[in-house]
Amino acid sequence: MVLRRLIAAGVILVFGLSLFGCATESGYYDTGRSAGVGALGGAATGAALGSIIGAATGSPATGAWVGAATGAIVGGVGAYLYAEHRNSQMRSAQAAARTYNYSPTQGNLVQIDQAYANPASARPGQTITLATAYTILTPDNAAVPVTIYREVRKDGQVVGQPYSTQVSNTNGSYTDTVNYVIPQNAPRGTYAVTNRVMSSAGTAERVSYFTVM
Fold first, then answer.
1. 82: pLDDT confidence band, cut at 50, 70 and 90?
2. CATH number for the domain running over 83-212
3. Could you tell me which residues are beta bridge partners of residue 7?
4. I need a surface site. Which of 3, 168, 180, 203 has the fewest CB within 10 A?
5. Confidence (pLDDT) at 80
């Protein structure tokens, strides 16, 4: 409960800072204003929130990724590059259990079945869909809060800010997608996307790729 209140307070503060950006008729933020103010506000407040959460939970690592994710969600660059997030169930609990020959005695199973970009090649300014197909199976089939994290890199350098969102899933297989707008100044080449599924039941990671032509 305390952790949720801390996160909520931090998100409200960051959103307050990010509102200095201005929306255009197309639905995108003015990249000159919102990217600068939003990114600074998101990064600074995310770091502060991470420190608070780390101290409250006794886990600096937990505070670090929660703080970074919070800053990225509402930071100007992250808000501009990502849009239209969707999370849908592809297999029921029973179907997923049959597919993986799962028994409750095995404990928790969390894995990424597939990760890809569609289309796999695009030009600067175009939009691609980043997809992550994953499965969660637990003995009690209770709803599990899941954080979906994505980070795009070119030649080892992060492009924009990472993207993070949270959903709540019972047992089953799911597909999580988000649209990604390739920056207008993106250089040609291959980009690597780190796809990570994090929950109390376990964590899984897989890398996908797309090409900028």
1. confident
2. 2.60.40.3880
3. none
4. 168
5. 58
- What gap in Å lies between CA 77 and CA 35, rounded to an integer? 5
Closest by CA to 74, choosing from 96, 44, 105, 106, is: 44
The DSSP symbol for 120 reads S
C-alpha 19/C-alpha 29 separation (Å) is: 10
Distance from C-alpha of 19 to C-alpha of 34, rounded to nearest angstrom: 8
Binned at pLDDT 50, 70 and 90, residue 152 comes out as: very high
Q: What value does the CA radius of gyration of the chain take, rounded to a whole number of Å?
A: 18
Q: Is the pLDDT of residue 36 over 90?
A: no
| Among candidate residues 123, 125, 133, the one with its CA nearest the CA of residue 210 | 123
Q: How far apart are CA 105 and CA 163, in angstroms?
A: 34
> Is residue 178 within 8 Å of residue 162, measured between CB atoms?
no
